[in-house]
Amino acid sequence: METNKEMYRPASIEFDVANSSIVPDNLGKFKDAKEALEFINKNMVGINQKITVSRFMDNREKTDLRKEYQDILELKMPLVEKELQQASYEYEKAKKALADAKEMVNATTNTVKALANEVKLGIKDITLDDNYTWRVPFEGKYYFYTFMDLQLKLAKVSIIPDYEKTDLYNSMTTNEEFFHGNFGTSEEIKAWKTKPKTKFIKVIDKGKDEPALDLKPEDIPQCNPPSESTVKKQDE
């Protein structure tokens, strides 16, 4: 069919050419190609060249083309549309699989990074039993002690919120006496010797004011009496 179309030649051929110069669209009729060649050689300079140009179709060619695309629409289009639908489904399926695979790679990468950072920091969370863990307010901070391995170990330090500081004033005063009077600098220890001996330490348990933990006198660090110069200074 394609060969027949290529071999077909309309009875009259009109070229699709845009010409607005004085050059005519037709130089006349000649009895054969030899006579046309002689006319060219006699009147002008022309060089032979093979080219492809556009021409207008006749009614037969238009009818043949209409039939061809109608056949395509009726016979071929449904098939290719079905193929497109199947290909689209496969594409979406593959796209989702690709997205899932990328997400899995990213999640795995993040897990590896998190574990690597955890190893680098060397720190791991641990939940402490509230029955053996106490928070001790001291100088604007909470000091969390936990009983572990037969020892009271400091496990965490956090700042006390402003709205809690007023309620904790007495507790912090008691704790300041204990820490400064036993673990401070020599100057601090001397300054806190003027304070009366404390019989017990109040411990804040689970965020509530619990009964004071009574200690035996021998469990309480003893402080030496204040010097006379210190007492006089305080009286002044």
Can you give a write-up of this model?
With 236 residues, this protein is an alpha+beta fold. The protein folds into 2 domains: 2-118, no CATH class; 130-235, no CATH class. 48% of the residues lie in helices and 13% in strands. It has 7 helices and 7 strands; from the N terminus they run H-H-H-E-E-E-H-H-H-E-E-E-E-H. The protein has a 3-stranded antiparallel β-sheet with strand order 1-2-3. A hairpin with a 2-residue loop joins strand 5 (204-205) and strand 6 (208-209). The longest helix is centred in the middle third of the chain and has 63 residues, at 59-121. The chain starts with a helix and ends with a helix. 3% of the residues are buried.
SSE pattern? HHHEEEHHHEEEEH
Q: Kindly report the oligomeric state of this protein.
A: single chain
- Low-pLDDT stretches are 198-236
Overall structural domain count:
2
Mean pLDDT: 79
Task: Please summarize the sheet with the most strands.
Answer: 3 strands, antiparallel
| Biggest sheet strand line-up | 1-2-3
The structure class reads alpha+beta
- Strand composition percent: 5-15%
Shape: rod-shaped
